[in-house]
Amino acid sequence: MGSFLGFGGGNKNEGSTAPAADSQALEVKSKIKNSIAQEMATAYATGLVNALSENCFQKCIIKPSDSLSTADEKCISDCASKFMRSWNLISKEYISRINKQS
Description:
Layout: H1 14-60, H2 70-101
């Protein structure tokens, strides 16, 4: 029989709900972390594409026209490759420094 208005007395389920609540809280926290990580990855990729496009367009397309010349295509390809190598190098170093600080 339960206690009057929920005051006093013990509840057999009291101990078992705390671990379930902790488990649910951890699951929610994990989902939020994953969601934030996905959003950051999307923002990172978008920033990369935007920066690459802006830099390579300014460098390679001197006289815009309705089509790209062979020289324009080669310049864009070389620029994009160089930009990606640089971006990857900087990213790896940044991650390495963050991991050292942790």
